[in-house]
Every structure is written in C-alpha cells, then in structure tokens.
C-alpha cells in the first residue's frame, strides 16, 4: 500500500529539504508552483560573480535580493551559488591593467568578493557553494586549468574556503561539481577534498550536481559516490538535479514532445534516484532540482542549442508528470 502525498516538500519533510533553482523571472511566472512544492531556493545565475560584481567594487544585488525576499516571504531556505568559479566571472578579476593580475591581487579580490557577498546574504542561507567545478574531467591533472589556478596556484581552492569561513562562521560550506558519480572524477574529487581536510580546510560538504540521464550514471556508481564522499564525515547535497531525456552525444532535433518511452524511463530513473536519496538521508541534507518544470530549463540550450528537453518533474504546463508521481509515492 503506497501513500500518495501531494507535494515534494511534504513528502520529504522527514528526509531532507527539497529545493529548486530560480531566477526573478521564473519566480514571477511559476511562483505558485514553487511555493507549493519546494522549501529551498538556489539562484540559478544571479548570485554568480559576474552578476553581483560586474565591475570592481560595484556590487549589484537587486536581482539576487528579489529571490531572497521571495524566500523570506514564503518561509523558504536558501542555498548560495556560487562564490568562486572559472565561468561567469568578469575578466577584470584576473587583470592588472593590460597584464595578468598577481597572486596577491587575485587573492585580495577573491577575499573581498567573498566578504561582501557573504555578509550581504546571511538569513535564510543554510549553505554556500564556495567553489565550483575545479576538478579536471580528463587526464592525470587533479585540477582543471583556469585563471584562478594559473595566477594563484593550486591552493586557491583552500584559500576560498578559508576566506568563506572567515566571512561567515555559521553557514555550511560546500564544494560543488558535475560528473561527480563517474568513478575517475569521483576519485579525484575525493582526493582533493581529503587533502584539503588533512590541511585543516574548513569544508562542510560535497555538492553532487546530478545532471543525470536515462542511462548514465548507473545506480551503482551513484551509490558508490555517495558512500565515498560520506566516508569523509561530510554532509552531501544534491544541488542541480535534472534527468535529460537525451543520452550524452545524442544530437537529434526532430522531437516536438517527449516520447512515451522517454517519459516511462524518466519516471523509473527519478523513482530509483529518490529511493537512493531516502536510503542515504542520514548523509543527504537537501535535494535541489535545477528548474521547476519543463517550461524552462538550461538543457533547452545545452548541449544542442535551441533543442527542447523535458528533464523535470513537471511538464511545460506545470502539471505533474509520472516522474513526480513516482517520487512522492513511496511506502
């Protein structure tokens, strides 16, 4: 006998927070759905460095503040995303006039950015992605090449966490990455974080982005990743979840709506994923979906620009899909 629960946040109130990525536009358009289903918000883009500090010393918080105000008005929590990243960071950060910035200048700018942003955003934040996607996808290098790394050195990751803890001693600090369940990258992430912890770096958790698909990653690999990260004694958060209906490398553009087979497989996958999250809810603090519905999501433009995707729990009319029914119906 299964128990039908009406909302995500009610279904999982004894397990973990259920969040969603939003923009000021999606809050205006889809606010009713978001208020009903979720209890945590993440700014999809408007808290990233280029949005909040487009010019040195000029901070523009209006868009981000509108999301925080929405969260407060509707008794929701906030995840901060993201303080340091190699993408969506303005070029001036890495420049000193017409030459590259020095290590000292880059570190000073990193610290000032983190200080101002974390002191501006306090309640109702329970976690921040301090640094995003620093692990190399391929090869033997642990860290990817980036301006942060080339200017500061490999310890820029540790420095970001130290600056964040100094700025706010009370919020949980997370490292966030994609392909976090693929064994080779999983082991790199684990190695980096363990080394940081051995050096006393103030890190509280690992963010599993969970941009997953109908075939990959396998449940065994996800389970292994959860167990490996949790073995460090850190909390885990699923931070950017969606389930693409197209397998990696599939470039087809002929569909104007998803096939029945896609929707059936997606429902099975969501059901299996959330079953796994419930099993490991002792370690998992929140699960955030990277859009409220199929009406809008970043996969509409990635990896094939302009190709519609249908990766979420609600359809283009904000109606629940079979994936949603599976996720909220469990013994």
From TrEMBL:
Keywords, alphabetical: Carbohydrate metabolism, Glycosidase, Hydrolase, Polysaccharide degradation, Xylan degradation
Any one Gene Ontology BP term: xylan catabolic process
Domain GH10: 2-330
Catalytic activity, EC: 3.2.1.8
InterPro entries: GH (IPR017853), GH10 (IPR044846), GH10_dom (IPR001000)
Pfam families found in the cross-reference section: Glyco_hydro_10
Family indicated by similarity: Belongs to the glycosyl hydrolase 10 (cellulase F) family.
Protein's recorded name: Beta-xylanase
Annotated source species: Alkalibacterium olivapovliticus
């Amino acid at each position: 006998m299964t128990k039908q629960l009406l909302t995500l946040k009610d279904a999982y109130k004894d397990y973990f927070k259920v969040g969603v990525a939003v923009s000021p536009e999606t809050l205006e358009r889809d606010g009713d759905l978001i208020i009903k289903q979720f209890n945590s918000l993440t700014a999809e883009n408007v808290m990233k460095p280029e949005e909040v500090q487009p010019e040195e010393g000029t901070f523009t918080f209006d868009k981000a503040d509108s999301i925080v105000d929405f969260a407060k008005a509707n008794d929701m929590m906030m995840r901060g995303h993201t303080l340091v990243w190699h993408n969506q960071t303005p070029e001036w950060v890495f420049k000193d006039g017409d030459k590259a910035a020095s290590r000292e200048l880059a570190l000073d700018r990193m610290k000032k950015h983190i200080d101002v942003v974390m002191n501006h955003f306090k309640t109702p934040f329970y976690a921040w992605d301090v640094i995003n996607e620093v692990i190399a996808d391929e090869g033997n290098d642990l860290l990817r090449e980036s301006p942060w790394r080339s200017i500061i050195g490999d310890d820029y990751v540790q420095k970001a966490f130290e600056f964040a803890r100094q700025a706010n001693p009370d919020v949980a600090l997370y490292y966030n990455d994609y392909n976090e369940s693929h064994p080779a990258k999983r082991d790199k992430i684990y190695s980096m974080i363990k080394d940081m912890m051995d050096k006393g770096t103030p890190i509280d958790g690992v963010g599993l982005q969970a941009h997953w698909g109908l075939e990959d990653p396998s449940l065994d690999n996800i389970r292994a990743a959860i167990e490996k990260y949790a073995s460090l004694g850190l909390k885990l958060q699923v931070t950017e979840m969606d389930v693409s209906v197209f397998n990696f490398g599939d470039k087809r553009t002929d569909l104007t709506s998803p096939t029945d087979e896609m929707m059936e497989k997606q429902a099975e996958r969501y059901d299996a994923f959330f079953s796994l999250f419930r099993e490991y809810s002792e370690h998992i603090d929140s699960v955030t979906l990277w859009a409220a519905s199929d009406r809008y999501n970043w996969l509409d433009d990635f990896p094939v620009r302009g190709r519609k995707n249908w990766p979420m729990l609600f359809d283009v009319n904000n109606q629940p899909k079979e994936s949603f029914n599976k996720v909220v119906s469990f013994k």
